[in-house]
């Protein structure tokens, strides 16, 4: 995996396309890779090895050097390699000599200044160019439809292979195994190039100069300056125009305005609190706030010594129970888990959750209050 990162990267394009000035501001901040990001890097390394092996290419098994390797990662990367090989078989049905590129450097600087990225897998064949991106994350469901990261990758791949193959359309797939999610979006070459010229290029030009308008929204989630961004503050403080009286006094449209911003408002407040805390820990003295020691839990100094002491007193210090489904899946791996326990797992109906109409989950049919039981 390359260490160099583009200022206008494909992975952050969702943010800088919506808020162009954020690109240069974020570029000034140091990268602080999270444990989730490092876990994803390990998974991608394993994907590369397994896919090369499946294609008959020599590659060294990286498992012993992976910090976060477990059975779940082994299963997910197996599924990824299998999926890619299935797509290669499909490509061979319409083209005699398709080519697979793994961890391919993709340059889309024709539209984005110094724009480049790395494509997990590219399958090049006549008529259709296939771009596949492996996502190991589980918290955020990623969709391929009009996904700017995937479209930037597609442009980079098109720059290399268009002309060598008669490409008419590009198929982009997000493979997210831990969410059991495969999302595919197909766009014509003409439509992709039109988006690149009319939307991507002019916005990237603004972003490269730190120009354009600040805009707050869901794209703020991974912005490095989100905690101190004034535009985001203004966006969230618009809710202050409501007096927050009892719900009976609010009109329906007012409630919907609040619902539309509620999650982002909570996220913003939490970001502010975390930023202020970290500043204080680093030595900053706030005027009206101070650091105190938070609540902590008691713990045994030595588990073995405690057990011996309790047993000598005639008591049993141990408890035994079946581990949870998530822990069991990690221990067995998804394939073995399904093989052994598929008939012993049930999933109860989830509690009602209110989401925007744009959410792809189907609406619940049973909406009577008696249809649900609250857990006490």
Which tags fit this structure?
Lambda Exonuclease, Chain A, 376 residues, disordered C terminus, alpha+beta
Can you walk through the features of this model?
The chain has helices spanning 13-18, 22-27, 35-54, 71-94, 148-161, 189-208, 230-237, 252-281, 303-312, 325-332, 334-341; strands spanning 99-107, 116-124, 127-134, 167-176, 181-188. The chain contains 11 helices and 5 strands; from the N terminus they run H-H-H-H-E-E-E-H-E-E-H-H-H-H-H-H. Strands 1-2-3-4-5 form a 5-stranded mixed beta sheet. Among the domains are: 13-208, Alpha-Beta Complex (Lambda Exonuclease, Chain A); 226-281, no CATH class. Mean pLDDT is 88; it is low at 371-376. Helix 3 packs across helix 4 and helix 10 packs across helix 11 (334-341). Strand 4 and strand 5 (181-188) form a beta hairpin. The chain is an alpha+beta fold and 376 residues long. It is globular and about 80 Å long.
């Amino acid at each position: 995996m390359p260490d160099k990162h583009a200022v206008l990267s494909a992975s952050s394009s969702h943010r800088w396309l919506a808020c162009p000035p954020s690109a240069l501001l974020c570029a000034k901040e140091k990268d602080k890779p999270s444990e989730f990001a490092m876990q994803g890097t390990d998974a991608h390394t394993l994907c590369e090895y397994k896919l090369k092996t499946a294609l008959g290419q020599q590659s060294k098994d990286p498992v012993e050097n992976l910090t976060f390797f477990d059975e779940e990662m082994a299963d997910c990367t197996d599924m990824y390699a299998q999926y890619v090989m299935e797509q290669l078989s499909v490509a061979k049905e319409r083209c005699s000599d398709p080519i697979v590129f793994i961890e391919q450097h993709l340059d889309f600087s024709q539209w984005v200044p110094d724009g480049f990225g790395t494509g997990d897998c590219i399958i090049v064949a006549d008529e259709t160019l296939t771009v596949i991106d492996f996502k190991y994350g589980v918290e955020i469901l990623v969709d391929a439809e009009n996904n700017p990261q995937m479209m930037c990758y597609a442009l980079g791949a098109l720059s290399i292979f268009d002309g060598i193959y008669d490409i008419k359309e590009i198929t982009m797939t997000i493979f997210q195994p831990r969410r059991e999610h495969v999302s595919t979006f197909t766009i014509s070459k003409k439509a992709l190039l039109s988006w690149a010229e009319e939307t991507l290029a002019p916005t990237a030009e603004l972003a490269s100069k730190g120009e354009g308008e600040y805009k707050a929204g869901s794209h703020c989630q991974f912005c490095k300056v989100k905690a101190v961004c004034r535009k985001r503050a203004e966006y969230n403080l618009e809710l202050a125009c409501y007096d927050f009286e009892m719900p009976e006094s609010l009109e329906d449209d007012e409630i919907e305005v609040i619902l539309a911003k509620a999650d982002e408002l909570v996220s913003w407040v939490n970001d502010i609190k975390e930023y202020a805390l970290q500043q204080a820990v680093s030595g900053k003295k706030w005027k009206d706030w101070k650091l105190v020691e938070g609540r902590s839990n008691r713990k045994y100094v030595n588990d073995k010594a405690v057990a011996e002491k309790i047993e000598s007193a005639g008591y049993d210090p141990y408890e035994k129970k079946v581990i949870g489904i998530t822990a069991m899946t990690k221990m067995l791996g998804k394939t073995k888990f399904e093989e052994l326990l598929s008939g012993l797992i049930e999933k109860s109906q989830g509690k009602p959750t209110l989401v925007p109409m744009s959410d792809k989950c189907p609406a619940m049919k049973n909406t009577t209050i008696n249809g649900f039981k609250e857990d006490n």
